[in-house]
Amino acid sequence: xxxxxxxxxxxxxxxAPQIIVRRSGSGSMATLRSATPGxxxxxxxGGDPAPWRLYVRPVALARGERIETKAVRYGYAESExxxxxxx
Length: 87
Prior knowledge:
This protein is mainly beta. It contains one helix and seven strands, in the order αβββββββ. 21% of the residues are buried.
């Protein structure tokens, strides 16, 4: 079964999210994407201990706010974290 799920016999890694931040009014909107099909993206604003949330739509950010993201897919290792700061 592992050979069918992981043809290379090694656990694949989920691609880190891409963060696209665009200015919107007095703040910014962050759009998140992962190159790994079927991956879910989690994010938090402001860093630890802020709670992780599941990404479902663009996220509003105030100027200077930091967004931290991570992608996961069942059967894959978690991605590296990706971060951005709204300007």
